[in-house]
Specification:
mainly beta; Immunoglobulin-like; four-stranded antiparallel beta sheet; three-stranded antiparallel beta sheet
Amino acid sequence: MDSRDRSRGGEPDRRSMRPKKGTRPRFVSPEPIFYRCSRCGTLVIQANNSVSLLPPRCCGVSMSQLVVAEDNALSAAQHRPHLVVAGGFDANVVHITVGDPPHPMDATHVLEWIYLHTFQGGQIKFINGLTTPTVTFALADEDAYVFCDRPVCLGSRCKFNCKKGFTAYVYCNRDGLWKTTL
């Protein structure tokens, strides 16, 4: 029985053994670049440091780079991702809801996917065309980094901006690519 077991009368210590860091992790990859095939709709995400002067090709043609849309009052309200961080010291999640009020999801105007750029890379979730535009991304390792394990971060919304720099990208079939950075 080690000292952790003795401190609780023989019960194993359930606190995290992850060391607390004083600094936030650095991003290991640059902001992603998104390409889409105009013929078949294939999506390519360039998420590494290699820069190519030529865009990827698909269906015999160059793919189009998706460019972040310009803000206008109506479109920005419909497409702005709202990010909420929840969880604990070793693992947490980011809940993303798009729009305020939520983005309209009908046969001609849908969100196709949401991409979350994190410290260690990124994650993408494809959205079922007619569901509420809400997704949850699970975070672990360096992406789950938090400043502390105090109750303010455990099970409630983080108050210390631990995820500062995370970026959510949202793709709408009608209005293009939208971006929000924490």
